Amino acid sequence: MKKIFRWYLQQNMGVVAISRELNRLGIKPRKAEHWKGTRIHKMITNPLYAGFVRWGGEMAKGTHEPIIEKEMFDSVQETLHQRNHKSRQLRGPNYLSGLVKCGQCGAAMHVTYPGIEPKTRFKYYVCNTRYNLKSCDQAYIRADILEASVIQEIAKLAARKDVISSQVDDYVEHNRKALPGLEEKREANHQEVAILGSEKQKLSRWLLGNELTSQAVRFINAQIEELSEKEIRLQKQQWALEDRINDMQKESYNAETIADQLQGFVTAFPDLSDGERKLIIDSLIERVQIGKNKRVTAVLRPPFASFGYLSPSLAPRGIPPLSSRLQ
pLDDT tens digits for 54-67? Predict the structure, then answer.
């Protein structure tokens, strides 16, 4: 554990580099086959390792023996903040970041620069599984071509009001049938999140109110981490359910208005700031999936359907320009 904090602080290793090194050394995490950068990030930002617990939004001194010094933990948090700030300054306008998924293994895809000269090399989307574990053969996807082609397909859809109208009708009917089941799932999810929160509080009270051995602290710490990870997953599902249910409960959709809005987005896109472009794309696109042979399927948020799935006349092969142009 201390080694992870030292690597991050003293050897200037990032969370992804640390996860790759642990995987290379054959060191496995609890209840998982491989380390991931997200898991490393959760560890180095968890005050439990410095002898503290989170309570009511604040940090309180625990009764357990710390694994690392508070000074090292604070230094890691400061370094993390500085690196994130620098990363935001250097990050370019990657309009589809966070939306691109690998259709072969299901992992997210992020932007990377595989060349040597930063000023001349192209940006590519690469599968996280391929990048971290070398266990997926998904191709590198040119970012500029992918992003431009997705915008082009939105423009095509905006020009097809008949297709939009048909999709809206299908979506409204689908909502009518699916809404009761989603509401039941939302309630069950809400109850499970509440139970997890109660269990975490009980474990935190143990850390605060009892003299515990280091072995017991490690065990309770692992239990809290496991509950937190499950709680985060469920909370994300809960937010998604809430958004979907709220959207379904809208009384009607106007196909012509939707078409006009899409066309307005395409027309205004060149004049928007990077932040405005990213904001609008995130509100419009649910995900962009890269399948075998670089086949791309762009899925718009409701009430739209998947390109090339419910609208074969619009794009029978996903986004055709990408099949030959992606490098």
Answer: 665 566 776 677 88
Six-digit token string for 24? 């290379």
Residues 152 and 286 both lie in one domain: yes
The torsion angles phi and psi of 300, rounded to 5 degrees, stand at -80, 155
For residue range 80-105, list pLDDT tens digits in order.
877 765 554 444 568 888 899 999 99
Phi, psi of 283 (to 5 degrees): -80, -15
Residue 68 · residue 5 · CB < 8 Å: yes
Q: Find out whether 216 and 268 touch, Cβ atoms under 8 Å.
A: no
Q: And the tokens for 222?
A: 């692992």
CA pair distance 16, 39, nearest whole angstrom: 10
**Strand ranges (DSSP E) for 51-166?**
52-55, 58-61, 100-102, 109-112, 124-127, 141-142
Q: Which of 164, 149, 134, 98 is nearest to 20 (CA)?
A: 134
Please indicate, yes or no, whether residues 207 and 217 belong to a single structural domain of this protein. Answer: yes
* CA–CA distance, 1 with 168 (Å, rounded to integer): 53
| Residue 83 token pair | 């690196």
Phi, psi at 237, each rounded to 5°: -65, -40
**Euclidean distance between CA atoms 300 and 305, whole angstroms:** 6
Q: Do 152 and 285 sit in the same domain of this protein?
A: yes
What are the structure tokens assigned to 305, written together? Answer: 């359907």
For residue 215, being part of any structural domain is answered with yes
What's the residue count for the chain? Answer: 327
CA dihedral (142, 143, 144, 148) positive or negative: positive
Mean pLDDT to the nearest integer, 143-157: 85
The two tokens of residue 241 are 């359910």
Q: Which residue has the higher pLDDT, 140 or 62?
A: 140
Give the Cα separation of 112 and 100 in Å (integer). 13
- Quote the pLDDT of residue 324: 33
Are 158 and 277 in the same domain?
yes
